[in-house]
Design goal:
Distance between the termini: 41 Å
Shape: globular
CATH topology: TIM Barrel
Radius of gyration: 20 Å
CATH superfamily: Glycosidases
Helix content: 25-40%
CATH architecture: Alpha-Beta Barrel
Bound molecules: beta-D-glucopyranose
Largest sheet: 9 strands, parallel
């Protein structure tokens, strides 16, 4: 097998690094809604997260790994349930904990990309109506405000990760046995965030309010949110459904980014739509460990789709990766995805960086089986081991950059 060609040089200042999220790597996130879900006997959950990769304590190892590989950036999230485990009671110790991670990035020369909400919320917030409660935004702002001092050095902040997926997840997590989670929208196939549904509206309001607060407190910070791309295509006869599908699952969220400093684009696979919804009946289709089609070209489409909606707003690829046991496939996938990204950039699309999902194998929302990591870890000692793909992407990050245009 021949090694994939090294990508052409990226522009100077283009970030290359990796992403994680608190609940998926930290472990023992006991005050969060997901911890309750995992331990409630829900059919959605194959196994609980428990210790995860113990990044709560092992974060210096994670940052050392990022630096040692040659990455210049690291995306991670702050866990609201740790900062405010009880309504209105801020844990100063946990604020300082995340402050040390941000400072740990700085001393290692790593640009932190900080997510404030990545799928999980405090249990009390969920119980009080979550994002559909009247004062959801006010509660979110209280948490964001509590981070003011530690966010000072942060230049890239994500308010909310994938509101378009989180709005779908909320349909599931609040569903009772026998509920039709597909109800409330007029498109066939998988559940979608309802157009102007209450959760979606809650996210939109919270995003804009948090963006305003962050801009006021940190004038140099770039603030945006991230949107999951489905790289939607169609077969003949499916064009109209595909267009409506795109608008509902991506367009309505991307439109909210048009006044932002950047939009985070996250891409893994594609979805092909026919007149009756998603078409997924090819037994020969090459699937990854999540069951998604192996389709590295999705990233190129994702940034082109985003550009169509957000115009000149800069794009940051905040997630892209593959769940596989075969690390050579991860290199092949990433290499092809980067080549597509470079084609889009050569056409003038303003992309500011690429953050691979994920730095570590982690808790994939119900199971540890789909391994997305550039590094694995020992379940007993938690020692991290970089996979060849990590070294490969590190070499891409360290390779010479194009000079800035005059
Ligand atoms: C999420 C991650 C998740 C990844 C792979 C994204 O939807 O932001 O938390 O692990 O995709 O499924």
């Amino acid at each position: 097998m021949t090694a994939p060609a090294a990508p052409a040089p990226f522009p100077s200042g283009f970030l290359i690094g990796a992403s994680t999220a608190a609940h998926q790597i930290e472990g023992n996130n006991t005050a969060s809604d997901w911890w309750s879900l995992e331990n409630s006997g829900s059919a959605l959950v194959k196994e609980p997260s428990l210790d995860a990769a113990d990044s709560l304590h092992r974060w210096p190892d994670d940052l050392d790994l990022v630096a040692e590989l040659g990455f210049d950036s690291y995306r991670f999230s702050i866990e609201w349930a740790r900062i405010e485990p009880v309504p209105g009671r801020i844990s100063a110790a946990m604020v300082q904990h995340y402050g040390r991670i941000i400072e740990g990035c700085r001393v290692r020369g790593i640009e932190p990309v900080v997510t404030l909400h990545h799928f999980t919320v405090p249990r009390w917030f969920q119980a009080a109506g979550s994002w559909t409660a009247d004062d959801a935004t006010e509660r979110f702002l209280r948490y964001v405000d509590a981070l003011r001092a530690i966010l000072e050095p942060v230049r890239w902040a994500v308010t909310i990760n994938e509101p378009n997926i989180a709005a779908v997840m909320s349909r599931f997590s609040t569903a009772r046995k026998g509920d039709d989670v597909d109800a409330g929208h007029d498109l066939p196939g998988v559940p979608l965030p309802a157009p102007h549904g209450a959760t979606t509206a809650g996210f939109i309001e919270a995003h804009h309010a948090a963006t305003d607060l962050l801009h006021e407190q940190h004038p140099e910070m770039k603030v945006g949110w991230t949107v999951a791309s489905q790289a939607i295509g169609s077969i003949p006869g499916g064009e109209d459904v595909a267009a409506r599908w795109f608008d509902q699952v991506e367009g309505q969220f991307l439109r909210e980014s048009t006044g932002d400093d950047f939009v985070g684009v996250q891409s893994y696979t594609r979805n092909v739509i026919g007149p009756d919804g998603a078409v997924r009946d090819d037994p020969e289709e090459d699937r990854t460990l999540t069951g998604w089609e192996y389709w590295p070209a999705a990233l190129e489409q994702a940034v082109r789709d985003a550009r169509r909606v957000v115009g000149d707003v800069p794009i940051l690829v905040t997630e892209n990766g593959i769940a596989t046991d075969d690390d050579e496939r991860r290199i092949d996938y990433t290499s092809a995805a980067l080549a597509g990204l470079q084609r889009a950039m050569a056409d003038g699309i303003d992309v500011r960086g690429y953050l691979h999902w994920s730095l570590l194998d982690n808790y994939e929302w119900g199971s540890y089986r789909p391994t997305f990591g550039l590094a694995s870890w020992d379940p007993a000692t938690f020692d991290r081991t970089a996979k060849p793909s990590a070294r490969w992407l590190g070499a891409v990050a360290r390779s010479p950059r194009l000079d800035p245009s005059p």
